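From the shared-data thread, chain only:
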Amino acid sequence: MAKSNDIPQIKNEEQYEALVDKGYSKEKAARIANTDNAGKKGGKASTYEDRTKDELYEQAKKIGIEGRSKMSKKELISALRNN
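Structure, as tokens:
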């Protein structure tokens, strides 16, 4: 029997539920709700276009986008926005 601490935890349960209610998959909602800035507002993140291809690649790697090593910067941006 799994211990309760073996079950992955959601950092921002309210945001997770809201995303699932909007139609996001449970996996994507959990990934968003578990980011370091989950639920924070402020618009201080740089736009994808302002980031380097290497920065975009690392973000794509972090969230598991397949085929990222062969993508152009434009393709990485599209994949990140649509994942």
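The longest helix spans residues 53-63.
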